[in-house]
Amino acid sequence: MNVFVASLATETNTFSPVYTDIHSFRESFYAAPGEHPDTPTLCSAPFIACRELIRAEGWSLVEGTATWAEPGGLVNRQTYEQLRDEILAQLRAAMPVQGVILGLHGAMVADGYLDCEGDLLERVRAIVGPDVTIAAEFDPHSHLTEKRFNNCDLMVAFKEFPHVDFLDRAYDLVRLAVRHMKGEIIPTKAMFDCRMIEVLPTSREPMRSFVDRLQQLEQQPGVLTISVIHGFMAGDVPEMGTRVLVITDNDPARATQLADTLGMELYSFRGTTRPPYLAPVDAVQEVISSPHQPVVLADVWDNPGGGVAGDATLLLRALLDAGVNDAAVGTIWDPMAVRFCLAAGEGAVIKLRFGGKSCDNGGAPVDAWVEIKRTVREAVQDFGESVVPMGDAVWIRLQGTEMDIILNSNRAQAFSPTLFSNMGIDPLSKPILLIKSTNHFYDAFSRISQHIVYCDAGAPYPSNPKTNDYRHLSRPIWPIVEHPHAAASTVISEVST
Ligand SMILES: [Zn+2]
């Protein structure tokens, strides 16, 4: 047996001005064939699972390219075609193969391609023919399109958000692919369109129990795998939204029944899954009156992990307007201001314009006299076991205050308090920590803070589906319409073998 593995991934916020090109991939993660490291990245975990499981079978494994770009705006057309064709050429050279295993994200959109992963999978199928196993891993913040559904034998998405299980799910996928190549299973798939879009953290109810139950169902005989595609509301594509995918072993009726039942249950959770988000004025009042120190103020919708720039100034201004004069802010993405500060040097006091440059709704730039407290080349922060680059960074202090702000040059959400301590700021010494992240910050920051306030500043992430200017979304979904299943002519459920 001969198996091919490759990975091509990013998450495209089609509303973001931070366009994605070949440099975005090369800067974030690019491993040429044979050069993938021993540690997995979010979307290349199938490489690690294949190295162990395919080789354990005594089969040969051909590794293609693995690459990932930080979430951002639309992918440049030439960039997508170049990376796609590079992987397809590697596959052709590896033929004949009995299996193709891909690490995808599932929310990539390129200029001219509303469904990049569907396009890639369709071309892979055309090369290998109908009898070769095609298996792909996805991030749940993706779009489950019919083209992907029809061109894959096996699909597995991460179950957890935060995505702590991406490596475990890669092993699930490759184990199933091995069984399929051996002829031990006949995957029968069904997907249910929940006709909604919602934020579905699995660290809290009701999603926590739902995911636990999916894993129990997977232990039942004949049930191979169950995935929830949460959907990604910042991707304006026809099939955007929440879907349930069930794959059974040669039992299409069971797949359909489970997908329908679980899908409608998931639909019933709409509006109940998020932590409470406060408006800026209320959030700032709650922070100011908190008895705890430090209190964390999370700017959930200026999260570069969702493809926005991360240079909004709305909450910094809200703090200043409320008279706050002691807080730490991490981070504001502004490569130009960082460059000015590096040139001015530590200890200099300069008039600086920073933040607020990438879009028209994230707040205006801040103009202030600042003291440059610290400059760090190639700054980093921790995220679990991994180290996240922040690029060149500077710690500035607004003159006449104790407002300490980190400016950085690589877009990065706030993952852990090391983003402050690595720059020389003791996070425990500050009453307020203003950070930009939706959910991934929670684990590390909750260890140093007893009080976390989530703030919905309304921008720049397109967080309100009712007002987002969707041009490609092709069907009624909640919350844009109140009763999407009534409005739909049929409940979409589909089985292929
Ligand atoms: Zn995700």
Compute the average pLDDT.
95
Structural class: alpha/beta
How many strand segments?
Answer: 18
Widest sheet, order of strands: 12-13-14-15-11-16-10-17
Low-confidence residue ranges: 489-497
Main sheet summary: 8 strands, mixed
Proportion of residues in helical segments = 25-40%
Could you say how many structural domains there are in total? 2
Measured by DSSP, the beta-strand proportion falls in 25-35%
What separation lies between the terminal Cα atoms?
23 Å
Cofactors and ligands present?
zinc ion
Q: How many H/I helices?
A: 14
Shape: globular
This entry's quaternary arrangement is single chain
The value of Rg in angstroms is: 23 Å
Structural notes for this entry:
With 497 residues, the protein is α/β, with parallel strands linked by helices. The chain has helices spanning 22-28, 45-56, 77-94, 116-128, 146-151, 166-181, 207-217, 252-268, 280-288, 314-321, 335-344, 418-421, 442-446, 484-487, and strands at 2-9, 29-31, 60-68, 99-104, 133-138, 154-157, 187-193, 223-229, 243-249, 295-299, 326-333, 349-354, 366-383, 386-398, 402-408, 432-435, 451-455, 493-496. Strands 12-13-14-15-11-16-10-17 form an eight-stranded mixed beta sheet. Strands 2-3-1-4-5-6 form a six-stranded mixed beta sheet, with helices on both faces. A hairpin with a 3-residue loop joins strand 14 and strand 15. Bound molecules: zinc ion. The site of zinc ion (ZN) has 4 residues, from loops. Residues 139-141, 163 line the site of zinc ion.
